[in-house]
């Protein structure tokens, strides 16, 4: 965030009076990983209206209710190459995709009964279904911002023109005003950056909310959302976004951006100043920085195992090393549970490294030595290497020891790369490690040597404590 915070370019969405009045300097970032853990910084309590980030969610609700064939018959999935509020239809007079306003208004209309006169009670009921669905995706109850809703409804002339155009084409089967009212309401639900991250993580996890464990949408619907968000979610800036950021995403003129790394995490950013495409200036920059620095581009060739942590165990069933005295062996036998081994597997990228290191941090009160075994790792990207190096920093700061089993010297090579002036700036250490000069932790090529190192550490610390506790003369 610090890299992007100084950029004050762009303007708030002044064409909606209530949005024109927001604090233009608001800035928040949240990241929700695959198990529901959320990292957040900045104005994390600031609520803002979801606006166009609602579009993929209502699209998901329609897909879930009507199916793919019926939905595709009314709405295309091709990028428009035009601004979000253009009157854009294909040769069949369908909106080109559900992420532009024409497609989103038609999507909302498909939840209403196919009659030209819809009573307000029906609109209320359908909107209640939308709120329930959005809330299930976010993992908490969302609420309507009445002021923004009224502001949009009274100033939405262009959207009204789009809706009546669709009606004139014969593709809008319900009341135009009811469809517009439903659309304005869905755009006026309030969220935080953490809500967007949780929604993104729900889509990333194939429709399962990682915080509640609830299956909110099917895997097939989540897959469809990811596809359409990739090609259409950032409007006429989608090509540059996919190339430089490489994450399925959706922006909103309220200043939010929701981005998804399939199978791993969701990102929520809030900053209300917008660029010429209607996307948050700092939001786009923040996502670009995260993608580059954390290796999050979805076309990263590394593939993680379903679970990066292959096994976690202490030394209870492992023989004590040879060469220790009987007294030392008695002591080591008493603290075998204070040494824990973490075996990693698969290709290691940010998501897997974050999960493994967070598990180690959670165990710190119960261990004195953490042995991280990366002998089963195939590929480890630069960010993950930097994070693994950070185990020494985290453990040493707590008076503990971090040991690595690295038969291929992957970490040793990464230190050499880090110290190279030409490579170091591109490693992109996570914020909590910035300013940390990586030195080699205790790195060994075999588990036997690592176990000896752990036992030696425990014995040395016991001797030091004995000397410290001895009565003074």
UniProtKB/TrEMBL annotation:
One of its GO terms (molecular function) is glutaminase activity. Gene3D superfamilies: DD-peptidase/beta-lactamase superfamily, STAS domain. GO terms for biological process: glutamate biosynthetic process; L-glutamine catabolic process. Substrate binds at residues 52, 101, 152, 159, 183, 235, 253. Keywords: Acetylation, Hydrolase. It catalyses: L-glutamine + H2O = L-glutamate + NH4(+). Residues 339-416 form the STAS domain. It comes from the Bacteria. Its EC number is 3.5.1.2. NCBIfam families: Gln_ase (TIGR03814). HAMAP family: Glutaminase (MF_00313). Belongs to the glutaminase family. Homotetramer. This is Glutaminase. It comes from Gordonia desulfuricans.
